[in-house]
UniProtKB/TrEMBL annotation:
Organism from which the protein derives: Paractinoplanes deccanensis
GO molecular function, one term: DNA binding
Keyword set includes Nucleotide-binding: no
Keyword Calcium: no
Protein name stated in the entry: DNA-binding response regulator
Gene3D superfamilies per the UniProt record, alphabetical: 3.40.50.2300
Keyword field: DNA-binding, Phosphoprotein, Transcription, Transcription regulation
Length: 231
């Protein structure tokens, strides 16, 4: 990622620098984001965390204005961490920064209280612009995400689709990935390869999501995924 971030200063009444906490389980991503943000005089990286479980402690220790939050993390995902964080008084703003832009994640992130949703291939200047904007209480979505969200709102889902999406919302992120793979008719071995987990772990995820969804078999899971429009 380039660090040609520009020298734009925040508008409005914000008096910087904007304090940022980076949450991502990939050390290289954290380092890259730190380089991007540190190139601006009005933004400072005050801390890092490698999992959503570390967010409450890191926020208490570093008191950031903005949290850059990854979605996919091993213990507590970014969506759960965002929901927990934003439910507290005086919480910092959150920008979800991820490679995964499925509609359900955009909507879940925004419902959880995130002020922004950006893809990790967003240009550095736009990441900085997002940090500055959400620090002022504004929202920031990447153009791709905005188009998807507008399309979703412009074409309301049928009640059956909304119910299916609500049921899938009970799952953890990893369970949801397995459910989506089931919706594509993939075998346990194929899911194991695609999601980089053992077949035994896949089976455990399938068992848990069947219980959570109150379904009897993987065919019913596939049908639910299709009802949700996610296949």
């Amino acid at each position: 990622m380039s660090t040609d971030a520009g020298s734009e200063t925040p508008a409005g009444e914000w008096s910087g620098p904007v304090r940022v906490l980076i949450v991502d389980d990939d050390a290289l991503v954290r380092a890259g984001l730190t380089m991007i943000l540190s190139a601006a005089a009005d933004v400072v990286v005050v801390g890092e965390a490698s999992d959503g479980a570390e967010v409450p402690g890191a926020v208490a220790a570093h008191r950031p204005d903005v949290v850059l939050m990854d979605i996919r993390m091993p213990k507590v995902d970014g969506l759960a961490a965002t929901e927990t964080l934003r439910s507290r008084a005086g919480a910092p703003e959150v920008i979800v920064l991820t490679t995964f832009d499925a509609d359900e994640y955009v909507l879940r992130a925004l419902r959880a209280g995130a002020s922004g949703f950006l893809l990790k291939d967003t240009p550095p200047a736009e990441i900085l612009r997002a940090v500055r904007r959400v620090a002022q209480g504004e929202a920031m979505l990447s153009p791709t995400v905005t188009r998807r969200l507008i399309a979703h709102v412009a074409a309301p889902a049928q009640p059956s689709q909304l119910r299916a999406l609500e049921r899938l919302g009970r799952l953890s992120e990893r369970e949801r990935e397995v459910a989506l793979a089931l919706g594509q008719g993939r075998s346990n071995a194929e899911i194991s390869t695609d999601l980089h987990m053992s077949v035994a772990t896949v089976k455990a995820h399938v068992s848990r999501l069947l219980i959570k969804l109150e379904l009897n078999n993987r065919v019913q899971v596939a049908l639910l995924v299709h009802d949700a429009g996610l296949a």
